[in-house]
Structure formats: structure tokens, C-alpha cells
Design a protein that fits this description.
mainly alpha, 4 helices
């Protein structure tokens, strides 16, 4: 963030970070609930091992403590834009499912998708405070070609991996926003711990 940040911009950033931490905590809780429903409805083992997946952003970051504020925001925004596309894809795959229980799963997926979209917009607002604005979304959608050949079980496992990684991103996002809210040149004040950090 700019060193010459005005008091009003500092207060705005503090407010956005505080609300973002709460949003991340709610999203983490809802994704955990969705995971339980997803595993049950898809007939999966909750402890199933899912390898790293192409097109799914990993929450783990090398040298996390050395990242700049801009890098944190840009990494988060790119991740949630990708998850927005991935969850949309999962919803499309669920359209062929019938029955009240499957409808409940689709509703839960849709609710989390809305949270992901809202969080991406929240990050864009923080980037606008940086006087640079969010980057365009060209290439934001993960490649879909290779998944067309996946079998039903592989698609189910992929969905499990997507939701698990999204849950980890919710935790990381709370940490990133807490880092951004620490006192610095802009004079912002630390934000109390949010629920996502206790997960």
C-alpha cells in the first residue's frame, strides 16, 4: 500500500480487512458443512487422498511471510476467481442429479459460490484502495479440456479436492487480511482475531 495513505483510506482499509476476515470465517464454516454433505451424497470416503489437481490453486505459499501486500491480494483474487469457475463447473455437473437430497447439495454449492464471488469483489475493493485496481480476468478460468475425459468417480474426487483447497484458502485469506491490517505506514490498526483463524 502507498506510504502516503490518507486517514480516510486507512480507515476504509481497516474496515474492509475486518469484514473480510469475518467473511472468510463464515466461508470456512460453510465449506466445512458442504464437504460433509458432498462426501455423503457422492458416496466418498471423507479421508480419501486426493493428489494435487491441475487448475486448482494451492493455498500453501512458499515464503509467505515475505510476500508484499499487493502479492497477497493478487494471489487471493486469482484464487477466488479460479474457485468461482470451478464451483460453477461443479454445479453444472450436478444438474443431471435428481432428488431432494441432490437438490440440497446443489443449493449448498450455489450458496458457497455466491460467497466466493462476494469475496472476490471484496478483494477487488481492497486493490482499488491501492490505486491500481484489480487485474482483468483474462485467463482466470481454469482449463476445462482435460476434465472432459474424466470418469464419474474421478470427477467426484476432483470436486472433493476443490472444496478441501477452498477451505484452506479461507484460512489463508484470514491470515493475509490480518497481515494487511497490521499497523504500518498507512497507520492502520490491527484487527481482532476472526473465526477463520481458529479453524
Amino acid at each position: 500500500m502507498a506510504a502516503a495513505e490518507t486517514p480516510s483510506a486507512a480507515l476504509r482499509r481497516r474496515d474492509l480487512c475486518s469484514r473480510g476476515i469475518r467473511l472468510a470465517g463464515k466461508m470456512r464454516s460453510d465449506v466445512a458443512d458442504l464437504l460433509d454433505v458432498y462426501v455423503e451424497r457422492q458416496g466418498l470416503d471423507a479421508s480419501a487422498n486426493v493428489a494435487a489437481l491441475d487448475g486448482v490453486p494451492a493455498a500453501a505459499a512458499e515464503r509467505w511471510g515475505e510476500q508484499t501486500e499487493s502479492q497477497r491480494l493478487l494471489d487471493n483474487l486469482a484464487a477466488y476467481r479460479a474457485f468461482r469457475a470451478l464451483l460453477t463447473e461443479m454445479l453444472e455437473e450436478q444438474r443431471d442429479q435428481a432428488g431432494p437430497a441432490d437438490a440440497a447439495l446443489r443449493e449448498a454449492l450455489a450458496a458457497v459460490l455466491l460467497q466466493v464471488s462476494a469475496f472476490a469483489y471484496h478483494l477487488e475493493e481492497l486493490l482499488r484502495l491501492e490505486s491500481r485496481g484489480p487485474p482483468g480476468e483474462e485467463g482466470a478460468r481454469p482449463p476445462t479440456g482435460p476434465r472432459l475425459g474424466l470418469g464419474l468417480f474421478e470427477r467426484k474426487l476432483r470436486g472433493l479436492g476443490v472444496l478441501r483447497e477452498l477451505a484452506q484458502w479461507a484460512v489463508r485469506s484470514a491470515r493475509d487480511l490480518r497481515q494487511l491490517a497490521k499497523p504500518g505506514p498507512g497507520g492502520t490498526t490491527a484487527v481482532p482475531a476472526g473465526p477463520a483463524e481458529s479453524q
